[in-house]
Amino acid sequence: MVCSIHIERRGVTKSDKMRILPLAALGLACIIAFVGAYETELEDNVERNTPLSANMNNYIDVVMIQVGPWMNTHLVPMALPDVVEGFEHRPILITYHGELALTNGVFHTIHSVGRNGNAMMHYDRQLLRVSVGANIRQLGFTYDYSAHIMDLGPSGFVDVDVATMTFTSEFIIDMTDFYIWMQDFRLTNMGNLSIRFRGNILVDWLANIFVNIITTIFRNTITNVVSNGVHEFIQATLDDMNGRLRGRAISEQEAAVLVENLKKMLNH
User: Could you list the residue ranges that cross the membrane (predicted)?
Assistant: First the structure.
């Protein structure tokens, strides 16, 4: 089996990093969730240094509504690697050797993003730890394909839809200087693939081979490319946020404003 991979990924431009509202809202929601719980603890006369935990599902659900459209605008389209895979097929006596090439790949569509599991925050010793899982739903990909097998040379393009990709992430916010870093980010699950060939009528046995190859490529290669792309984009956004807020702790007055803004968001 031969595999040749060439990756061309769109870089994060300055204009991309300026459009940080959805992820900034994520950080904002984390802080507000903390402040909201914090104020409740104060009302109950609990010491400020007491470790506390809280469920953030309602806050994160508000943020997730905005993340899908934002990713569709600023993360995709994303270039995908060219891949060449060798294969063989032996229906009776003759073994057919061939090669399938996927080129000009594009990750072009995200339908929506939703929370996966409980979103939790834990506060202790001026560190706010936020754990969030997300489902990216109905991802769309397109590739040109061409094959060489004996005297056959079919070509066309293929549409691939992935039902869902599930990620888990963890962020830490240092409340002394409002520095945010990503502690963990992992792809935890990939859903079913829907594969449709266009531009050429393939015999059943060849179509089945192509489906198997493409499924393997997506599970072994493309998911890593997409996962790394999302990870790098989030990290670039955090770097931009940290550059703007470095060395600046949140004040009590600002905390009160954040709480009021969140109330307005949830009331609408």
Answer: 20-38
